[in-house]
Amino acid sequence: MMSCGLPDTPLIDSQQAFERFLDSLEGIDLLAIDVEADSLFHFRPKICLVQLATPENIALIDPLRVPDISPLKAVVEDPNILKIFHGADYDIRSLSRDFGFNVHPIFDTELASRFLGIRHTGLDAVLASRFGIEVDKRFQKKDWSKRPLSDDMIHYAAQDVRFLIPLYRVLQAELQEKGRIDWVKEECERLSDVRYKAEDESPRFLRVKGAGKLKPRSLSVLEELLKLRDREAQRLDRPPFKVFDNQTLLSIATALPQTLEELQALHALSPKQFARFGEAVVAIVREQVQKPEKELLHFPKNGSSINDPNCNVRLALLKKMRALTAEELDMDPGQLCNNALLGRIASQSSLSLQTLAQMEEMKGWQLAVLGSRILDTLSQAPGVRIER
């Protein structure tokens, strides 16, 4: 089992201690980062702890106690310091949302694990497979906004960054050996560009898996139920899923109960939810049932020629090619190329390496690995012209 020689973890909860720690970062070229937030407990989530590790030191910064952590911006945006994450997307968006940090450059060890064909890519699983380390995950879903933090929580938070730099070095070497380091660098370059975006005015149902299968009237009911959920979640300062989960709302929107008796017979709501929201839910359903067809919501089409039988044939061929290539490379097929990109390729009437390269979703490494295979696969497919 690997041990880590980093010193005991200081919890930095004052401006003076924070600035002293920043001074200690001068001259570093690697910085591991993780954050703990309270998204499971509040309507508007916030970062409650920022964990940082260098090859020599480790520290936990408490942004709920340190008045101003904006000086950290220069560090996380320094192009000469590589920031190491495990599952970077959420952390980068959260740091952008709460502090205006645009973290760059990065290396994501979770992403690297997927490109190495590792099936279980959670940090605990990867550390166990590479170092024989067991990580205690008991505190993963704790409310990190509560103070004081227990010693066990502080230890847990430190573990999430303690081994990231050694893990980065091991995975980087494995990627070099497989010739895939440039693939991961390109993916990380794109990933570092993600930013938090406030929820726009687009329909809420677009963020609910399964909504695309609903008919317009049910979709309209679902949208109003989601608005009801958000209002109540904001009033209670709770995450929306703790008011109603998505499956509950999908069940109601599908069944369209117009009376309390019909709603109760559906068994979608708990007794407490039924007592609190039954009348409001039934009122929403009745209102949408009475709406003219032209006023109902419709799920947006994805623009692909999904009803074109030739497109469907081409898509099936591409999926088969992807599966064979993924098996050859020992990678997950979805990591090799997602269905959205395959669908766009299948919808084209003319294809060449140049047209593939011009697709925004197509990455350079994908074009190198899959470009010729795509053209070969579709060379005898109906309804598409291949240009060499």
UniProtKB/TrEMBL annotation:
UniProt cross-references to Gene3D superfamilies, sorted A to Z: HRDC domain, Ribonuclease H-like superfamily/Ribonuclease H
PROSITE patterns: HRDC
GO molecular function terms attached to this record: 3'-5' exonuclease activity; nucleic acid binding; nucleotide binding
Domain of life: Bacteria
Pfam families with a match to the protein in the record: DNA_pol_A_exo1 (PF01612), HRDC (PF00570)
Any GO BP: nucleobase-containing compound metabolic process
CDD domains, sorted: RNaseD_exo
Domain HRDC: 215-295
Xref: PANTHER family: RIBONUCLEASE D
Protein name per Swiss-Prot or TrEMBL: Ribonuclease D
